[in-house]
Amino acid sequence: MPNTPRDVFDRMAQEWLSRSAPNGALLAEDAVLEMPFAPPGQPARFEGRENVLAYTTAGRAAFRSGSTSSVTSSCTRPPIQR
Question: What InterPro entries would the database entry show (predicted)?
């Protein structure tokens, strides 16, 4: 069964918090990371596996370990068919 976007996000979040090495195998070559609430002047979209991994790797280096909380929202409408 293929991974859903939510499955991939959950696994990446586990990796992030456990400090294990990023696993690019979870991402498609044409992966897209969108952050609708990115601060002004910061990119809100990263396209391609290598760009997503470069961004998340840099973010992990600056991430302080310890307790954290997060909120994840999901869209309930059907996927767009192309």
Answer: NTF2-like_dom_sf
